Amino acid sequence: MFSSRALTSAARIAAPRTPIAARLTATRAYAQAAPPTGAQNKPPVALFGIDGTYASALYTAAAKTNALDSAAKSIDTLASVFKKDANLTTVLGAPMLSVSDKQQIVAELQKHLGQDKDGIVKNLLETLAANNRLGALEGVVEKFGQLMSAYRGEVELTVTSAAPLDNRTLSRLESAISKSQYVSQGQKLKVVPKVNPDIRGGLIVEIGDRTIDLSVSAKLAKMNKLLKDTL
Q: Which superkingdom is the protein from (predicted)?
């Protein structure tokens, strides 16, 4: 069913033993162990969790068939779909989706894949649906983006704000960070803006393993702790 045994093997590890998954794991495709992967196909960074497992398997499958660029374009398109449809995450995570529902969802998502070489991203969607993991798709999309950034030598700068930032502000942040110690010579800076109303205001800036929390929510938390300790 699937063109990549690496993707299938990872799905077996992450999947719950649901009736659908149990029937699928009985097939020969799922029973076979994935062959050793060459260093050139290994994900550039280690990721964890269910979404990290699937993202890493997708990377390996795409690398083995020289389809990384094609897969990246398809995943980028799916990322834009999530941004445009605020309800998509809720729909994908619904616990009572029938087999027919999943098939329709996958078919709809596949319309956005463009030139998906060897159907690798298509296979990912079908695997997630079969294993009741469609709710992990948004995380898989994000984690695969992290793998591609590392592959391209990019440093990801995540900027979280309570409301969308304008391009001028993002450009100023990018310019300032690109000249800092956190970006080595030859590395590219990739700005990833995120919106989280819960921070109330200010910014949370993340680059590599460094987090600078300048949010209003963080300041309020510190103030409340100070008052509590004083009283």
A: Eukaryota
User: How far is CA 61 from its chain centroid?
Assistant: 16
pTM: 0.67
25-38 residue pLDDT tens: 332 332 233 444 45
Mean local confidence (pLDDT), 196-218: 90
Per the CB < 8 A criterion, the answer to whether 217 and 199 are in contact is yes
Query: Could you please report the per-residue DSSP string of 174-217?
Result: HHHHHTSTTS-TT-EEEEEEEE-GGG-SSEEEEETTEEEE--HH
210 compared with 74, residue with greater pLDDT: 74
Choose among 205, 145, 198: nearest CA to 170: 205
Side-by-side strand order, sheet with 210-213: 188-195, 154-161, 203-207, 210-213
Enumerate the domain spans of the chain.
5-149, 153-230
